[in-house]
Amino acid sequence: MKYLLTNQQTERLHFRILEQSDFENWLKLFEDEQTARMLGMDNFKTPKERCEKWFEWTFHRYKNNLGGQNVLISKENNQLVGQCGLLVREIENEFELEVAYSILPQFRGKGFAIEAAKKCRDFAFESQFHNRLISIIIPENENSKNIALKNGMNFKKQIDYSGKKMDLFQITKQDWENLD
User: Fold this and answer.
1) Largest Cα–Cα distance in the chain?
2) CA–CA dist 173, 11 (Å, integer)
3) Model-level pTM?
4) How many CA atoms lie within 13 A of 80 on its CB side?
5) Cα atoms in the 13 Å half-sphere on the side-chain side of 16
6) What is the pLDDT of residue 44?
7) Whether residue 162 has pLDDT greater than 90
8) d(CA 84, CA 100)
9) How far apart are CA 101 and CA 116, in angstroms?
10) Is the pLDDT at 42 greater than 80, yes or no?
11) Which of 15, 36, 52, 69 would give a disulfide with 8, using CB separation of 3.0 to 4.6 Å?
């Protein structure tokens, strides 16, 4: 399963693939209407429907070598804190690799998203998966934009993605090599 960070780790996190047994923990993410909207899941009416669709999409990605988000497990207490990973995307008829992240509400603001996003960035470039990484973010999602900026990305342009205006952030391999 190319692009997955299975068995990778950071100072505070273990990465592993999503399992069906994670459903109840991940359901909490979709109980928040604003989060559902930021993740483009607001077309689904209930948290359960949103979570079921998320799991369907994630397992489809795994099965078809399209990357996917990895579950982030805290080393300190073995709790699921969120997901982060590399997603294969087609943007404007080009192959792209997106760094995507979602953190459960009770673990936000603790640096888990940037820690995991940097690991994904480094893993992708060290593995020579692509010469550029992107993050596609809803324009009003300031928290995700801040993570992208902290991950060395810069705003590139606004794109139409799945019928919505989205902000595209990017970092090239050359930019990454020149980071402090």
Assistant:
1) 45
2) 23
3) 0.93
4) 21
5) 13
6) 86
7) no
8) 6
9) 8
10) no
11) 15
Backbone angles phi, psi at 81, to 5 degrees: -105, -20
CB within 8 Å of 47: residues ≥ 6 apart: 27, 30, 31, 36
Residue length of the chain: 180
Cα separation values, 78 from 10, 14, 73, 116, 117, Å: 14, 9, 6, 16, 19
Chain position carrying tokens 């077309």: 43
d(C-alpha 76, C-alpha 176), whole Å: 29
How far is it, in rounded angstroms, from Cα 70 to Cα 116? 10
pLDDT of residue 117: 98
Token pair, residue 19, equals: 């399992």
